[in-house]
Amino acid sequence: MKLTTYLNYGGNCAEALHFYEQHLGGKIITMQTYADMPEPKNIPPGLEKGIVHARIIIGDTLLMASDGPPDKFQPMRSVYLALSVDSNEEAERLYALLKEGGEIFMPMGETFFAFRFAMLRDKFGTSWMIINERPMP
Questions:
Q1: Of all helices (H) and strands (E), which one includes residue 19?
Q2: Total domains, the chain
Q3: Taking CA 74 as the corner, what is the angle to CA 127 and CA 43, rounded to the nearest 5 degrees?
Q4: Which of 30, 61, 66, 99 is the most exposed place for a label (fewest CB within 10 A)?
Q5: CA neighbours within 13 Å on the CB side: how many for 32?
Q6: What is the pLDDT of residues 16-57, one digit of tens each?
Q7: CATH number of the structural domain spanning residue 18
């Protein structure tokens, strides 16, 4: 068995994955649009250029993603993608990048379990935790 995270977007999946590829060192493996579907095409209105299925690798993790009808899309709730990094500088870089146009739930700071830790939702609706963990006994 293999567990893979599948992200849904409201029409900006391609933009989000290209952003993650450029800024998080990801690699898009495949990206297919609704227009690429074989006949008969069952394309939700407004998603003619939307993504029906995509795969991206970030770090050593595979994520899958697609666009759904924008009127039904809701930003991610109660689930986070956690980015673990090895330096405060990288944690701060990612935080600055992902908070732009997003919503901060917990600002970047030091905690008893991490040198740097933050929780936020990016401008695409994906929720992230960024952590540079302290060594635990």
A1: helix 13-24
A2: 2
A3: 120
A4: 30
A5: 9
A6: 999 999 999 999 999 999 988 887 777 878 888 899 999 999
A7: 3.30.720.100
Give the integer Cα–Cα distance in Å for 65 and 55: 6
Residues 93-124 have pLDDT tens digits of: 999 999 999 999 999 999 999 999 999 999 99
Q: Does residue 26 fall inside a structural domain? A: yes
Q: Which two tokens mark 113?
A: 């379990």
For residue 131, how far is the Cα from the chain centroid? 16
CA gap 74, 71 in Å, rounded: 9
Rounded Cα distance, 87 and 33, in Å: 37
In a domain, 121, yes or no: yes
Return the residue matching tokens 């980015």: 83
